[in-house]
Amino acid sequence: MRRAYTLIEIILTVAIAGILSMGMFKALEAIALRSEKAKALSTLSIDSQSALDQISSLLYNRIPLSAVGFDFNDSRPYRPLDEVNDKTILEWYGSADESYLSGDYSGFVDLNRSDFSTRTLYSPDTNLSALLVREKIKWNDPSLDFSDLLLLFSQTTFKGYGISGSLPNTITLGGTPPETIYEQYRIADSAYAITRKEHAAACFPNPAFDDDTLLLFYDYRPWKGENFCDGKVTVLATGVNAFRAQMLNGTIRLSIDMNRPVRGSLSPVKLSKQKVVF
Fold first, then answer.
1. Each residue of 137-164: pLDDT tens digit?
2. pLDDT of 217-251, one tens digit each?
3. What is the 3-state secondary structure (H, E, C) of the chain?
4. CA 249, CA 277: separation in Å to the nearest integer?
5. Judging by beta carbons within 10 Å of its beta carbon (0-12, 13-18, 19+), is residue 214 exposed, middle or buried?
6. 173 has which bridge partners?
7. pTM, whole model, 2 decimals?
8. pLDDT tens digit string along 189-208?
9. Residue 145: how many CB atoms within 10 A of its CB?
């Protein structure tokens, strides 16, 4: 004779099934959360590495001794990066040869053929005409001339000189003549600055990006009285809690802290990464 289930047995069975279902749901939820966190961490790693690679590539072509640190309301001259560690904006001068072809300028002076009394430098394997043509194309400015460029010697102090030239390989220095002329020189045509939007909101008021956006400012010339707000700007990364640059033993140590919220989690995923630029 078939025995029927009692009400108590049915209730117990449903209760046990509910408990098991709840436990399975919690387990699946935890697995999904771990998966989302792993995905967010992977994205953060890629984004932070991409930002650091872009910055280091630009810094690699910096003019020696040009890296400085400052805050938005500071006035020039800014202090060298190796003398500060708590400033919010990193700036440096970019070497023009990063976008030129070989033969535009050599970066060296023939001291025996140069005339120091007239501040006329003979630079072999240099074509100033070609250099100027490339500058006009790069800046999309047909009126650009040598006064928009800056010549700096590789020495222990950071001081630039305006230049002019009529012959392909003859450079005339403007302004106060230097006490010493060095064999190696670099030409700067732009400066770069990096900061979070929090520290330069007046220069980048775009409401689509919050204060944790890391910005790169470029194509401006401090030696002509311009600051980074006068340049172009692009977004390097979002979700950046902190960005730091420190100079130590001639190298620049870059640090970036990023976070990203994860659906279902009360706390965001965080990641810190560093890179050294020689």
1. 888 889 988 888 999 987 767 888 988 8
2. 999 999 999 999 999 999 999 999 999 999 988 89
3. CCCCCCHHHHHHHHHHHHHHHHHHHHHHHHHHHHHHHHHHHHHHHHHHHHHHHHHHHHHHCECCCCCEEECCCCCCCCEEHHHCCCCCEEEEEEEHHHHCCCCCCCCECCCCCCEHHHCEEECCCCCHHHHHHHHHHHHCCCCCCHHHCEEEECCCCCCEECEECCCCCEEEECCCCCCCCCCEEEEEEEEEEEEEHHHCHHHCCCCCCCCCCEEEEEEECHHHCCCHHHCEEEEEECCEEEEEEEEECCEEEEEEEEEECCCCCCCCEEEEEEEEEC
4. 11
5. buried
6. 163
7. 0.84
8. 999 999 999 999 999 999 99
9. 12
Amino acid identity of 33?
A: L
Residue showing tokens 């800046």: 139
Structure tokens at 77: 């001259």
**What six digits make up the tokens of 36?**
């989302």
